[in-house]
Amino acid sequence: MNPNLTYVLVVGVLFAAGVTLLLERSLTRVLMGVILLGNGANLLLLTGGRAGGPPIVGTTAEGDMSDPLPQAMVLTAIVITLGMTAFLLALAYRSWHLNGHDEVQDDVEDRRIMELADRDEGPGTADNDNDSGDGDGDGGPVTGPADDRAASPAGDAGRGR
Predict the structure, then answer these.
(1) DSSP helix/strand/coil, 129
(2) Nearest of 39, 41, 34 to residue 18 by alpha carbon
């Protein structure tokens, strides 16, 4: 079975546009990307099925029956896409209600970790040397005095910062 070239191109365009929209920061565009990916997946699944008569024994010859599995998978994909759409709509509405826009902001902690990683990436840093910078030359971790707060599961939150 050879799929129609038009269907293959449409599936490719739907997937490309969906992935491009998923990479945006706006939840509305992410929602449109999920919808396009869902439609592309549905079309891809439908092109995998064989056209034919209804798959009911006794009404159609066995060689002329269509495959019901792609149709069942498309129905499942529709339900999953609908659920994801509802979830993203709720997220976008909540973001709009709280912030006045639906753009996803950077996490402050992620930004801090990225800045620390950028400072560590250079020649002559502790990551590249044998010594870890604790002063004893063994390459082991820096250890400080025992502190009850350091062992708490709250971490920095337990220190009042």
Answers:
(1) coil
(2) 34
